[in-house]
Amino acid sequence: MSKSIFSKIIDREIPSDIVYEDEQLIAFKDINPQAPVHILIVPKKEIPTINDLTEEDVNLIGRIILTAKKIAKQFNLSERGYRLVLNCNEEAGQTVFHIHCHLLGGRTFHWPPG
Length: 114
Ligand code: 5GP
Fold this sequence. Notes:
With 114 residues, the protein is α+β, with helices and mostly antiparallel strands. 20% of the residues lie in helices and 22% in strands.
């Protein structure tokens, strides 16, 4: 399997605007932002889709959500609100097959998403 574009970002082969990093995760600004704040929270472990998650990844998924909460606070979104999105496969709009959580904020979002 060839390396995903996000693994290249993790390995600093491609530049990105990193806002958070620890042993398990990295978070950086989306190159094509859909909101004033649009950050991707990405596990360093390369998992192609949500369908590939196993029990072994329970802690990792928890860390992603808690890290999103922390970054939302950093960007003053906690009280205003923000949206977390995980797309799985083509119909949902997944384009990068290395799981990631979108953190979107700084504007109003509608529901249903359309
Ligand atoms: P998906 O559609 O797979 O849920 O989201 C992939 C996201 O990755 C898109 O919002 C897209 O703009 C972003 N993206 C794709 N390539 C790059 C890149 O090279 N750098 C950054 N920072 N974001 C990227």
